[in-house]
Amino acid sequence: MTTRPIPVPPRGAEVKWHLSPPYSARHLLWLVLIVALLLVTGQRTDMDRMVAMTTQAVGNLIGVADDSQVVRGLSRVGTAMWPPVIGEVEEVNRMSDLDRDRLPLFSYIEVQERVEQRMNLETLQLEAATEQVEVLVKPLGYVWTVFVKMVETLEIALWGTLLSVVLSIPLAYFAARNYSANRFTYTAARGFISLLRSVPELIVALFLVLAYGFGPIAGVLALGLHAAGFLGKFYAEDIENADKKPQEALEAIGAGKIKTLWYGVLPQVLPQYIAYTAYIMDRNLRMATVVGLVGAGGIGQELKGRFDMFQYGHVMTILIAIFIFVFLLDQLQARIRARLI
Amino acid sequence: MIRFESLNKVWPDGTHAIRDVSLEVPRGQFCVILGPSGAGKSTLLRAVNGLMQPSSGRVVIDGTEFNARTQSVLRRRVAMVHQHFNLTNRMSVAANVLAGLLPMVSTARAMSGWFRPEHREKACELLAQVGLSPAHLKRRAGELSGGQQQRVGIARAFMLDPEVVLADEPVASLDPKISSDILRLIRDAARERNATVLCSLHQVELAREFGDRIVGMRDGQIVFDGSPEAFTDECVESLYHGAVWDDTTPEEAAGSSLALGTTNVSLA
């Protein structure tokens, strides 16, 4: 067998290679443009005022500035919100179904004196009238109410996630280019996914409350629909990007689309699917506390009601509860993650 | 019997992968298709199970022409062993082998994984035949070595008792010792069932050892067709030589192949 030498340039030959520097005038121009754009948008969004007011607030706190609008506003709200409401007091004669022998846990009946200003019709003067009122005191009553609402929030998140998984599986199948039946089904599925993703949960919930009335149904549907768009997109892209080799092997023996998907794709993408679903669960838990603001059930509905009645003490209790809830969830998630990995 | 009738394949970019190939392979033959990279070996094999649509010409398997109508029936009779094993890596060995039965079982059975006992037994028998042990059944396919993965691939290919086995460079990524083990497994399993084997290879020694017949391909054309004995060293020389270097003479290659001209390479 004849051999050939590996080609090498002859000695002394001129090498005409050229390595250009990494930055040029064009990059500088881009930099100037980007800075200009940032300045314009910053001015439009009042970023200059934000910096000024924050500086003033910091100055007021350390005793340099006399007055600060920010500090005044925050302290007014802060004073109104403290202390958080823990118990509940209800007048007995307004409760129709009270069984005196079987009071709720930890609660007791008490007689309180109430002083009321009444107009004396003869003298036309306000007089203080003292009244004996029998009340039912529940020392942890409001905390319990909030707890029940929190559980409802959790349930909304759970069912929203379940619904989104169930909805997104057929969506993902049709939105995956290599599995969709034809161009029409592909475009339709992709369009529907974009539609679901483009409308935020709160706005969906706003309309669903009109359709289904106040309560958790609207919340579950809103979370489920929005997350179905999310999951549908991610699932579909995973199907499209999955390793083609096992799929080819199953196609070669004529296994059919569904079976190929089940045996050639699903085992590969399952870990990613679980990760996406866990993310959606986490997201739904946080969103479930918010959708109640438009009347779709859960803790948000309670929050909105108290806020509108200026009962800031109650609001504080709810905010603390939400914080504890999210904190516990993070801890739980860290535990689960540590166990799985 | 497989018959290729003046088969042509032109890729969309204008590459002529197969030029007017006509070939007849009788039932039960171990036919090795030999040739340098890019000769069109894989493309020819993939015409037999429709993974590649020929531009013109046709493939006839036991008197039935391969087309869109007969595809689903014919694909069940044609098994394939792949160069990169093409197993589902995150699935168990057992499930990978049972996947070879998918065209035969109902969707409900496939999705639940509840295969018939005789099918499960058959999977075990085949795995034993290719030299794996019961301990491998539940392992993930991706954890096995290359040689073991190809054994699983062979077991999967024979689940449907195929009449034709297409082996597309089945040992390209395996070491020489394992390569001949694997080819022996394919040959023996095929002989037992009187199945035809079309096996593309690029190792001349293996082709001579295992082939009943050697078909040499270059540039999409058949340039040799005969018994292993007739495939002499001169044939090897003419098959491999010049195919890749054809457009440059040694003088040119020595003088100018690195003169690429001014090339701008930017790291930005």
UniProtKB/TrEMBL annotation, chain A:
Organism in which the protein naturally occurs: Halomonas campaniensis
CDD domains: TM_PBP2
Alphabetized GO MF terms: ABC-type phosphonate transporter activity
Family from the record: Belongs to the binding-protein-dependent transport system permease family.
UniProt KW Transmembrane keyword: yes
SUPFAM superfamilies (alphabetical): MetI-like (SSF161098)
One GO cellular component term noted in the UniProt record for this chain: plasma membrane
Annotated coiled-coil segments of the chain: none
Domain ABC transmembrane type-1: 150-333
Record's protein name: Phosphonate transport system permease protein
Pfam families assigned to the protein according to its UniProt record, in alphabetical order: BPD_transp_1
Membrane-spanning ranges: 23-40, 156-176, 202-225, 285-303, 309-329
Highest taxon, organism lineage: Bacteria
Subcellular compartments: Cell membrane
InterPro entries associated with the record: MetI-like, MetI-like_sf, PhnE/PtxC
Membrane topology, record value: Multi-pass membrane protein
UniProt keyword list: Cell membrane, Membrane, Transmembrane, Transmembrane helix, Transport
UniProtKB/TrEMBL annotation, chain B:
Domain ABC transporter: 2-244
Subcellular location: Cell inner membrane
UniProt keyword annotations, A-Z: ATP-binding, Cell membrane, Membrane, Nucleotide-binding, Translocase, Transport
Chief location: membrane
Pfam families xrefs: ABC_tran
GO cellular component labels: plasma membrane
Membrane-topology annotation of the record: Peripheral membrane protein
Gene Ontology MF terms: ABC-type phosphonate transporter activity; ATP binding; ATP hydrolysis activity
Keyword Transmembrane: no
Coiled-coil ranges per UniProt: none
InterPro entries: AAA+_ATPase, ABC_transporter-like_ATP-bd, ABC_transporter-like_CS, ABC_transpr_PhnC, MetN_ABC_transporter-like, P-loop_NTPase
PANTHER family for this protein: AMINO ACID IMPORT ATP-BINDING PROTEIN, PHOSPHONATES IMPORT ATP-BINDING PROTEIN PHNC
Protein name (record): Phosphonate transport system ATP-binding protein
Naturally occurring in which organism (per UniProt): Halomonas campaniensis
Lineage: Bacteria, Pseudomonadati, Pseudomonadota, Gammaproteobacteria, Oceanospirillales
